[in-house]
Amino acid sequence: MGYYKRIRDLREDSDMTQQQVADYLKMKQPQYNRYEKGYRDIPSDVLIALADLYNTSTDYILERTDIK
Hints:
Radius of gyration: 11 Å
CATH class: Mainly Alpha
Order of helices and strands: HHHHH
Number of domains: 1
CATH superfamily: lambda repressor-like DNA-binding domains
Strand content: under 5%
Number of strands: 0
CATH architecture: Orthogonal Bundle
Largest sheet: none
Distance between the termini: 18 Å
Structural class: mainly alpha
């Protein structure tokens, strides 16, 4: 799964730092970093929160569609 590239690109396109996203998700930055690097699978609640943050669909993040 290449979702980690999508969440990094979405964050960078939104001019946000990993720390800002981690704060939004109420987690520590190193934990969020593991999701962005693809070291850990992303839990569904985090996936949904990221989709809400970036105003996109979970399917876009999971690369099931290219339509934001």
